[in-house]
TrEMBL record:
Belongs to the trans-sulfuration enzymes family. Its cofactor is pyridoxal 5'-phosphate. Keywords: Pyridoxal phosphate, Transferase. SUPFAM superfamilies: PLP-dependent transferases. Transmembrane segments: none annotated. GO terms for molecular function: cysteine synthase activity; O-acetylhomoserine aminocarboxypropyltransferase activity; pyridoxal phosphate binding. One of its GO terms (cellular component) is cytoplasm. GO terms for biological process: cysteine biosynthetic process from serine; L-homocysteine biosynthetic process; transsulfuration. This is O-acetylhomoserine sulfhydrylase.
Length: 411
């Protein structure tokens, strides 16, 4: 059958090789190495002339099936699963850039990603230039002959800012640089990155995909839109690998050498998570809109930030890019840090924990936790306020969540 929808495709993605027992779940190949019949076969495998699994740091059948499922729903040229979302981001930049290059992004970023750019990669000579990605003109002005990519989060965490991705893609295209998007908050199903001109998608599959925070993982998705001849570092491989240049260099060099591979067990869990992604995401997004509406009406709350609210400045652009669902993360402000802590401590159902897109609803005070290593001035630039709480909404019955929030606000 042709033209299957997301959830059907995920459930029925074929194995690359038939399972000898007809197992309806890809088994967990929890092994390190694979044997070959002859020395010649081993040689061919190492030369890349006969694709086969050799060693599980490089590839493994359970991980490959997880990657195939993502490939089937995105139509991507290549998909790579890694040990975490941070591994996906760092491996991507280590592949496309080198010392003295620069990239353009915003300070409105996930805290660890900012730290990766500002400390880890800067020490190795990669410069990061920060701007306001919601103002495409400013982005264009920062690009020079050493710029390799524009990097954005489709909905930034925790500012919940939404940039115009098509506008950024047009700038990147005109300058022959990459548009790389962290789609952790809007994974495939919610957002079709390819349609909006995103060249490379990185995401933390720890969040939506894992299915209830069972395991840490990350994905790199190459949508096949970029001409790799335009990238100085990868240019020399293009004649050999064509559209697979980036993925080949990753798998045969950077990903292999860095060693941040996903474990087969995590690939199994995340593959199961994918089967229910659409159902969970639908429920959590509906819940979030209801809770945002409730918070907006509450006299205890000074402001609510959710791109799905009609009065959000990102409402229109979020609608264009993500349709009716604006994700399941919202922030709201109380009058002080003290009030935030008091509220958090009164919650009976909602859990105090640092994660997003668990099945359970989680709350955190970002300024004192995820962003605690940054000084006040930087926190302000990053849009992280002392009065702000972040709620990552789960799939519980929204009425129970609202009851819990109400008693904690009023109690
Ligand atoms: C959590 C997160 C990451 C990092 O993912 P890990 O799987 O924890 O390494 C990156 N980007 C965003 C937007 C995130 O929320």
């Amino acid at each position: 059958m042709k033209d299957l929808r997301f959830i059907t495709k995920i459930l029925h993605t074929k194995y690359l090789r038939e399972d000898s027992h007809g197992s309806l779940h890809m088994p967990v190949y929890d092994n390190v190495t694979f044997e070959f019949k002859t020395a010649e076969d081993l040689e061919l495998a190492f030369q890349g002339k006969k694709p086969s699994h050799m060693y599980s740091r490089i590839s493994n059948p359970t991980i490959e099936h997880f990657e195939q499922r993502i490939k089937s729903v995105t139509g991507a040229v290549g998909v790579l699963a890694l040990s975490s979302g941070m591994a996906a981001i760092s491996n991507t930049f280590l592949t496309i850039a080198k010392a003295q290059d620069n990239i353009i992004t915003s300070k409105h970023l996930f805290g660890n990603t900012y730290s990766l750019f500002e400390y880890t990669l800067r020490d190795w000579g990669l410069e990061t230039r920060y701007t306001d990605l919601t103002k495409p003109d400013q982005v264009a002005r920062l690009i020079d002959h050493k710029t390799k990519a524009i990097f954005l989060e489709t909905i930034t965490n925790p500012q919940l800012e939404v940039a115009d991705i098509k506008a950024l893609s047009e700038i990147a295209k005109a300058k022959n640089i990459l548009l790389i998007a962290d789609t952790t908050l809007t994974p495939p199903y919610l957002f079709s990155a390819r349609e909006f001109g995103v060249d490379i998608e990185t995401l933390s599959s720890t969040k939506w995909i894992s299915g209830g925070a069972t395991s840490v993982g990350g994905l790199i998705i190459d949508h096949g839109l970029y001409d790799w001849k335009q990238n100085e570092k990868l240019r020399r491989d293009v004649n050999k690998y064509g559209p697979f240049t980036f993925m080949t260099r990753l798998r045969r060099e950077v990903y292999r050498n860095i060693g941040a591979c996903m474990s087969p067990h995590n690939a199994y869990l995340q593959s199961l998570g994918l089967e229910t992604l659409a159902l969970r995401l639908d429920q959590a997004c509906v819940n979030t809109l209801k809770i945002a509406g409730f918070l907006k009406e509450s006299s205890h709350v000074s402001s609510v930030n959710y791109p799905g609210l009609r009065d959000s400045i990102y409402y229109e652009i979020a609608g264009k890019q993500f349709g009716e669902k604006s994700g399941a993360l919202l922030t709201f402000d109380l009058t002080s840090k003290n009030q935030c802590f008091k509220f958090m401590n009164k919650l009976q159902l909602i859990r105090r924990a640092t994660n997003l897109h668990d099945n359970k609803t989680l709350i955190i005070h970002p300024a004192s936790t995820i962003f605690c290593e940054y000084d006040d001035k930087l926190k302000q630039e990053m849009g992280v306020r002392d009065t702000m709480l972040r709620l990552a909404v789960g799939i519980e019955d929204s009425r129970d969540l609202i009851t819990d929030i109400q008693q904690a606000l009023e109690g």
